[in-house]
Amino acid sequence: MNDRLQIGDEAPAARSGPLAGLTVVSLEQAVSAPLCTRTLADLGARVIKIENPAGGDFARDYDEVVHGMAAHFVWLNRGKESVTLNLKSPEGLEVLHRLLADADAFVTNLAPGATARLGLDAESLELTYPRLVTCEISGYGSGGPLSDKRAYDLLAQAESGACSITGLPGEPAKPGPPVADACTGLYGVISILATLQARGRTGHGGKTAVSLFDTMTELMGYALTWSGYTGQDQEPVGMGSPSVAPYSSYATSDGQVVVLGTTNDREWQRLATELLGRHDLATDERYRDGPGRVAHRAELDRVIGDWCARHTLAHIQKSADTAGIGNARYNTTTDVVAHPHLAARGRWREVSSPVGPVRTLLAPPVLGGYDPVLGPIPALGEHTDTVLRGLGLAGEDLARLRAAGAIGPAYAGSAS
Known about the structure:
α7 (179-202) crosses α8 (212-219). The protein contains 18 helices and 13 strands. The chain has a 6-stranded parallel beta sheet, with helices on both faces. Strands 9-10-11 form a 3-stranded antiparallel beta sheet, covered by helices on one side. The chain is of the alpha/beta class. It is elongated, with a radius of gyration of 25 Å. The relative contact order is 0.15.
C-alpha cells in the first residue's frame, strides 16, 4: 500500500475509504474545524479548504518546527485541497457558492457573526442548497449571554470548570491537549455523519452546530453532576481522580514514575494482597469501599509510594500485570514519539508536504476493508487552479479573478 501522494497529485483521484464520493468545503482556522474535516478526509471524503489569500489558516504560522511548517498545521491538515478565495470580493464569494452547490457538507468555525455577514449562515444556505449539511462550530452556541464572545480552547476550558479540577488545590491548570477544540471537532464529525445518514432517507440536508462550551460541559458531566448533588466544588488531585483511590503516580527505585490505578473493590483487594503483600490493608474497614479509600487517599498513597520506591519500574509493572492491576509508565512527549507500541503497530506514517515527506500518526479508527487515507499536506493555494478549473473556469477566467483580487497568486508548483 502506498500511503504517500506526491505534491501536485489530484487528491480526489486517489480517494478511497467509506466516505469516498463525499465533498466537504470548509472555512476553518486553528484546531476544532480542521480536526473535524481532517477526520472526514482520513475516512475518504474530499475536503476543499478555503483560505484567505493573505496568509491562510493562521495555524500555518504558529511555529516552524516541521522543516519550516507549523506542528499544528501538519497535524490537522493532511489530505485537504487548499483554495485561496477573498470572500470580501463578490467574485470570490461567487466562486465559493459554486463550490457549495456541489458539496455535501460545509464546515465553519469563524468568529461570531462572520458567516452571517457573508450570507453564509446555516439558515440562508439551507434555503439555497437544501441537500447541503452545514456544521457551524462556535465558542458558546446561540441564544445565550456569551454567544457573541470569542472562544479559544483555554477560554472554554476555564469557563466550563475544567481548569478548576486540573492541577492541584490552589494551582489550577489547563489540561495539556486542546481538549475543547479537539472534542468539539469530533462531535462535529458525529453531527455531520448523522445528518448525512438522515439525508439518505429524506433527501434533505440540514443544520448542525457544536460549541466548545457545550462540549466541555459534556466532558465535565461527572464533575458537574457530583457538584450539583453535593453543593461542593471538586478539588483537583494532580495525577489522579477525585472519585477513585488509589489512582496515582509513584516514583520508583530506578528514577522512573509508575502510574497505578484501581477502579473497584476487587482490584483494590488484589493490589493490597498480591502487589503490596498487605493483607492488613485489604481487611481494614477504612478502605473497604471506594468512598472510604478516597477519604484516606493520602495515607494509601504514602504506603504505595513507599513500596514503589523500593522496586524498579520493570518489577512493579510485571507484578501489577500478574495481579491484574492497571499500570503505565509516565512518559514525556519525546518518550511517546519513540514509543515501541506505536512503532510495532505501524502507527507512524509519512505523507508528502511542501517541504518534503513528514511523519504523521494514523487516525484512531481501524476500519476493516479500508486502507488508511493519508493525503498530502497542502501549500497555501496549491489547489486553487485545479479546483476552479473543475468548476469549468478557464485560464482567462482565473486571470480575471486574480486581477480582481478574488483569488490568490498561482501556486509556484502548479503547471498552470
